[in-house]
Design brief:
211 residues; alpha+beta; 9 strands; binds zinc ion
Length: 211
């Protein structure tokens, strides 16, 4: 129906119509298609906002039995202890204080002081971190799925205060077959004879003597 010449004529007609309509203001609808975009972009610029997280959304707020202020913990804990327990950090392998500790006693949460592991359940895993095949009581530790670093692990944290402890694996020795891989920085160790003497003291004071 239309050849090239007729199409070119049609285009010329449209251009001429646009010229005259915009010049004399007779047909606003023809010019509106061209000017609308300009008006929109000129009068309604796109507002770009910084893409930030709402305040406080980086930490899970859970109702733990014992809650400490971050300011207090920064004063009381070493930078490494704070990083590991509060920011889910990991100490370097073979660098922790208790990796090779073979003394009899109790390992407590360095933040709140609740007893977590007995030395009887500690074994040498060769991993570079203190390893236990069992906890003092099953209700002192919280287990959470951890998908960081592109793998699935089960994080262990203190049930009472939420401090990050480490992870649990299924390659431990008998009788449980579990391996609690725990950061030394999350623990305070109280030797057996000292444990009896400090039972009446507060958790905070016992931690300070350990640190
Ligand atoms: Zn704790």
């Amino acid at each position: 129906m239309f050849n090239c010449k007729s199409i070119i004529r049609l285009q010329l007609y449209l251009l001429l119509s646009l010229f005259y309509s915009s010049r004399f203001g007779e047909d606003i609808t023809v010019m509106s298609a061209f000017n609308l975009l300009h008006l929109v972009t000129k009068n309604q610029p796109i507002a770009l906002r910084a893409c930030g997280l709402p305040s406080g959304s980086c930490r899970d707020k859970k109702n733990y039995k014992v809650v400490f202020s971050q300011e207090e913990l920064k004063k009381r804990l070493t930078p490494l202890q704070y990083h590991v327990t509060q920011e889910k950090g990991t100490e370097s392998a073979f660098a922790g204080n208790y990796t090779d500790n073979k003394s009899d006693g109790t390992y407590k949460c360095v933040v709140c002081g609740i007893p977590l592991f007995k030395s009887e359940a500690k074994f040498d895993s060769g991993s570079g971190w203190p390893s236990f095949y069992d906890v003092i009581s099953p209700d002192v530790i919280t287990f959470t799925d951890d998908f960081s670093y592109g793998m699935h692990r089960v994080e262990t944290s203190c049930f009472q205060c939420g401090a990050h402890l480490g992870h649990i694996f299924d390659d431990g020795p008998h009788p449980t077959g579990k391996r609690y891989c725990i950061n030394s920085a999350s623990l305070s160790f109280v030797a057996k004879e000292m444990d009896c003497m400090q039972e009446e003291s507060s958790p905070a004071s016992s931690e300070k003597t350990e640190l």
